[in-house]
Amino acid sequence: MSEPTRVYRFAVNVTPKPGILDPQGKAVERSLPHLGIAGVTGVRVGRRVELAVTATDAEAARAIVARLAGELLSNPLMEQYEVEALGETPAPAGAGAAG
Amino acid sequence: MSVRIGIVLFPGSNRDIDAVNGLTVAGAEPVILWHEDTDLSGVSGVLLPGGFAYGDYLRAGVIARFSPVMQAVADFAARGGPVLGICNGFQVLAEAGLVPGALLRNRGLRFVCREVALTPERLDSPFTREIRERRPLRMPVAHGEGCYFADDATLDALERDGQVLWRYTASDGSTAGPEDPGNPNGSLRGIAGVANAAGNVAGLMPHPETAVEALIGSADGLGIVRSLVVSAEEYAATGAVTGARALAGVAPR
Lengths: 99, 253
Prior knowledge:
Number of domains of chain B: 1
CATH topology of chain A: Mth169, Chain: A
Radius of gyration of chain A: 18 Å
Shape of chain B: globular
Radius of gyration of chain B: 16 Å
Order of helices and strands of chain A: EHEHE
Oligomer: heterodimer
CATH architecture of chain B: 3-Layer(aba) Sandwich
Largest interface: A-B, 10 and 18 residues
C-alpha cells in the first residue's frame, strides 16, 4: 500500500521581466485608442499555464512546479514567473505520486 | 573523403534540405540526425537547421532543447566539436544555454522574410575563418523571434571577449542598431550572431546555407558554411578547432 496522494492544481503565470521590451504589450496598448479607451498604460503580455500534480504533499507538489516553471515554462533571461495554488483534491484510486 | 557533418532534424525543421545543399556545395558530406537519436553517428561537426522545431510551442527552441539528440550535441560541444545553429537552430542553442543570450519576438512584431546585410566582426573564428574580407554579406532572414537580447553586462562581456561574430549592417555600412531598417528584428547592438565562450559553438539568425550560389541570388553565405566545414575537418584530424582557442583568448580587432 503506497502513501496516500492528492492532486494539487496550480497556475504558473509567466511574464516578461521588467525592462524587457514587450512588443506584444506595446501593440495592445497602441490599439486601445481605437476602442476609445484612454489612460491605460504598462500593458505586459505573458502566458498562464495551468497544471495538476499528483504528489504526497503540497510541498513536494510545489517543488515539482517550481522546477518545471524555472527550467521549461520560463526563460530566466527574459521572463519571470509566479506560482499560484488553485486547490487540491484526493487523487483518484490507483494514481501514483509524481516524483 | 569529405568530412561528415550532422544536420539535426527536429519535427518541424524545414531548412534541413537547404542545409544539406549548403554543406554539399561547401564540400562536406551531410548526415541527417533524428531528434530521438542519442548519438551523433561519428560526425565531426553539427548544424542545427532552421524551421519551427516542435511547432515553436511555448517558446522557440525550448522543447527541442530537451530532445535526446540535444544531450549528444551538448556532449559533442563540451568536447570542443564545432556546432553551428542557424535561425531556429540558434534559438535552440540559446534555450539550451550553449550560446549566451535569448531571441525575443521581433521588435516590429512581424515575421520578417527578406534579404539582409551582416558584417563579420572577425575573420579568425571557427565560423568566419573562410570569409575572405570583412565586408557586408547578403543573405536572407525568415523569422518572427530573432531579436537578440542579453543584459548590458553580458553584452559588454561578449564584445570584450570577441564573442559577437556578426552584426546587421545599415545602408551606410555602419552597424544597424535596434531601430535601423537594416536590423530586421531590433536586435540589441545589431547582433546577428554570437559564439560561446570557448568559441566552438555559434548561432546566427540569417541563413548562410541558402546563400551559397550566385545563381539563386547570393553566394555570400558560403564563407560561413565553408568555415564550419574547415573547422569540422580540423576537429576530425586533431580533435580540436584552432580558431576556437584563438577566440577564447584574443580580443576582437
